[in-house]
Amino acid sequence: MRVVENVIKTEEEPRICVQCEQVLATMLQPGSYESGLRRSENDQARVLRGRMILCQRGVEGWIRHGELHVLNIVVSDAALAGASDGKNGEVELCHSVNVVDSRVAGLVAALNAEVIARFPSGQLLLDSLEQALAVALVDGYAVRRPLPRSYRGGLSPAHLRKVKEWVRANMEEELTLREMAQLVDLSISHFSEMFRKSTGETPHQFVLRQRVERAKEMLRTAEPYVAVEARVLDIAIACGFKTQQHFARVFRRLCGLSPTEYRQERQESRDPTSGAVI
């Protein structure tokens, strides 16, 4: 178990965040934040002292913090598995933005007292509190997923094809990792691992590359009389990029030149008599 006290400063802009661990966060002071699956749909929330939030591993979304003073508790997978009586399956804690549980609150208070006093009681007490907290969380906030069938190379060919086709069909939208995992009925963490084994890249990297490939095709076929900057902005939006700056940065990283430079090169290499690229 890890217990960390964090003071988070106010952030100016929302950012994309993927939750890597199962965390129980307790507010030590009042604060605020905004979050949502899509940047355009972020909801603002005020949080009071003592508010407990259970963050599920693998959840992806947009977040922007106000100033927060938080006690983050990461219960180990081993403790959660032990609290589930060793039954088959993967234990996952459910995402909850308002955990109201006197047993959990009492254990968090004991842990916070140890943090304030700099852990005078030693590892044995921490281990005991972790086991008790794991039991309380599994009893009230856990779901069990059957261990998914795995493939040596990652996703099955049919599942991989389904995900790729869906990405290409919805590229202009704000895609989420949760939606991709649901297509093949896997947890987010397992889907990410299997996708990387299948393709050699993360889902995020794959989506960016597909967007750039579509942008290259649109830039090659752009009408020469359309203003360059206006056309590039239209293409960025059509390919799912929120800003032209982000589009240009990703395009240059993957292609070695800017979208405008790429378009100009292709326009200059076009045969003026046939319109074919030579």
What does this structure look like?
The N and C termini lie far apart (62 Å). The strands form three sheets. The protein has a four-stranded antiparallel β-sheet, covered by helices on one side. Strands 2-7-4-5 form a four-stranded antiparallel β-sheet, with no helix packed on it. The protein has a two-stranded antiparallel ribbon with strand order 9-10. The model is unreliable at 271-278 (pLDDT under 50). The chain is an alpha+beta fold and 278 residues long. The chain has helices at 77-83, 102-116, 123-141, 157-169, 177-183, 188-199, 203-220, 228-238, 244-255, 259-268, and strands at residues 2-8, 15-18, 23-27, 31-36, 43-47, 52-55, 60-65, 68-74, 90-93, 142-145. The relative contact order is 0.10. The protein has ten helices and ten strands. It has three domains: 2-145, Jelly Rolls (Sandwich), CATH 2.60.120; 149-200; 211-278, Orthogonal Bundle (Arc Repressor Mutant, subunit A).
Radius of gyration: 24 Å
User: What fraction of residues sit in β-strands?
Assistant: 15-25%
Q: Identify the strand order in the major beta sheet.
A: 1-8-3-6
Class of secondary structure makeup: alpha+beta
Give the biggest beta sheet: 4 strands, antiparallel
Under CATH, the topology of the largest domain is which? Jelly Rolls
Helicity, in percent? 40-55%
Low-pLDDT parts are 271-278
Principal-axes geometry comes out as elongated
Q: Give the rounded overall mean pLDDT.
A: 84
- Number of continuous helical runs: 10
* H-E order: EEEEEEEEHEHHEHHHHHHH
Calculate the terminal CA-CA distance, rounded to whole Å. 62 Å
CATH fourth-tier homologous superfamily of the largest domain: Jelly Rolls
